[in-house]
Amino acid sequence: MMHISLSPNLEADDLRLAQAQLFNLSSWSQHLFQDQLTQQLAKLFPNAKAIYLFNSGRSALMIALKTLNLKPKTPILLQSFTCSAVPNAILWNGLQPEYLDIGGDFNLDSKTLPQTTQAKALILQHTFGLPGEIDQIKNYCQKHSLFLIEDCAHSLGAAYNNQPIGSFGDMAILSFGRDKVISSVFGGALIVNNPQLVNCSNQLYSAIPTPGFWWTTQQLLHPLITNFVKNHYSLFGKAFLSLSQKLKLISKAIYPLERAHLTPPIFPGKLPEPLAKLALNQLNKLSRFNNHRQQIAFYYQQNLTNPAIQKPDYSKNSIYLRYTITLSQPENLRQYLIKHQIILDKNPWYRQPVTPSNNLFRAGYSSGSCPTAERICQTCLNLPTNPLTSFKDAQFIVKLINQWSS
Predict the structure, then answer these.
(1) What pLDDT is stored for residue 345 in this prediction?
(2) Which of 34, 196, 262, 362 is the most buried (most CB within 10 A)?
(3) At how many degrees (to 10) do helices 286-303 and 273-283 cross?
(4) Distance CA 401, CA 169 (A)
(5) Exposure string (b/e) for 287-305, b if CB count within 10 Å is 16 or more?
(6) In contact, 137 and 165? CB cutoff 8 Å
(7) DSSP state letters, 7-71
(8) Are 315 and 130 contacting, i.e. CB atoms less than 8 angstroms apart?
């Protein structure tokens, strides 16, 4: 059984660590692991002027935007083909998302940048670990006096011209979500590169709370429960996962309020100490994780031959959080793979221009405004590259896809 989004980074040491933290309550009020995690991130981002740890990437983005002290309804440029967490952080600050179309690499197409703009900031997403058009977009931001915020939720450890992704903008946000590059179930960070933004960031960060005992406990239970679920998925694991969520033993990645673009009460929040320990343990495995992802992606690139699918252009710059193919009937292939015990995303990245969303209009998106993103949303399918996907697994996936007939 392979599962692309159910704790895909979870190894035995992570499982033991989560269990140990549940029984080490006296350490929860300390800051040892938070300090160590911050220090390790500082080594990855040596030009950062400040680093802050949050309970999620959208908390980090909320504070990043608040730091800019913009007037209400100020437009913020971002790409479509994105997670609702990005426009939500904009909306929760009383600002206005302004969507731009993407290119064939799933990143913002610099050709769609407006000649004139009232925007004051641009969020550059590095989708699936592939760096966006950094030079063109950074030049555009400098020309129009825009703050540049890099969304590195998919790209921790990626580089461009030997410089780490996340060091090109005024700020960058990281995510340590359950299916991101590294995982503490919930978590994130804000990297501040612009020294003029540090004082305000300090003030805002000091004023936000740390999530409470039960929320933190839910996140520590998540690795234990999902490990059990994966081991018994075809029997009763799926039902047990649903029951655990209904009993609120674990939380979902996206809260119902977020789908309606309303702010859940846990955002923004700081990263609790036990989750910092989980993130630190995974960060120490970052190079191995990303090397593995790149090797699995290269295997797909070399061996997928089914003419019904289109492969992405391979890039050595990408860490390949996902390997994304396009085809005319992705749902048919997804169901075919499920029959062979390969469980791909239940809510694929990305099925619509803003995913998940109950109402694209409330997300500020106008239908038809980004035709490339809307087309790609209907044709893309993500294949697993995570650390738990072995080369034997990849060979099996390739064999199935090459045999599949639409």
Answers:
(1) 78
(2) 34
(3) 50
(4) 39
(5) eebbebbbebbbbbeeebe
(6) no
(7) STT--HHHHHHHHHHHT-GGGTT--HHHHHHHHHHHHH-TT-SEEEEESSHHHHHHHHHHHT-PP
(8) yes
pLDDT digits (tens, 9 = 90+) for 140-193: 999 999 999 999 999 999 999 999 999 999 999 999 999 999 999 999 999 999
Q: What is the pLDDT of residue 144?
A: 98
With respect to residue 372, please indicate whether it lies within any of the assigned structural domains.
yes
H/E element, 376: helix 371-377
- Residues of the chain short of pLDDT 50, as ranges, are none
Task: Check residue 36 and give its pLDDT.
Answer: 98
Give domain status of residue 7, yes or no: no
Looking at the whole model, is its pTM more than 0.90?
Answer: yes
Backbone phi, then psi, for 326, in 5-degree steps?
A: -125, 145
State how far Cα 209 lies from the chain centre.
Answer: 23
146 lies in the same domain as 30: yes
pLDDT of 297 reads 98
CA distances to 101, 352, 353, 360, 390 from 368, rounded to whole Å, are 10, 12, 10, 12, 40
Residue 234 is predicted with a pLDDT of 82
Q: The tokens of 19 are what? A: 């269990």
Instruction: Tell me what percent of the chain is helix, strand and coil, each rounded to the nearest 5.
Output: 40, 15, 45
- Please check whether residues 63 and 188 belong to one and the same domain: yes
Which pLDDT does position 14 carry in this prediction?
98
The verdict on residue 244 lying in a domain is no
β-strand 50-54 against 188-192: which pairing, if any?
antiparallel
* Residue 139, pLDDT score: 98
Domain boundary among 207, 222, 239: 207
State the pLDDT at residue 277.
98
Sign (positive/negative) of CA torsion 230, 232, 233, 239? negative
Provide the pLDDT for residue 340.
94
Q: Where are the alpha helices (DSSP H) in 238-369?
A: 238-246, 256-259, 273-283, 286-303, 330-339
Report the number of distinct structural domains present in the chain: 2
| Amino acid identity, position 376 | I
Asked if residue 192 and residue 314 are part of one domain, the reply reads no
The domain of 195 spans 24-207
Q: Look at residues 184, 207, 230 and tell me which one is the last residue of a structural domain.
A: 207
The residues facing 125 across adjacent strands are 151
Do 343 and 199 sit in the same domain of this protein? no
**117: domain CATH number?**
3.40.640.10
CATH number of the domain encompassing residue 362 = 3.90.1150.10
Domain check: are 193 and 312 in the same one? no
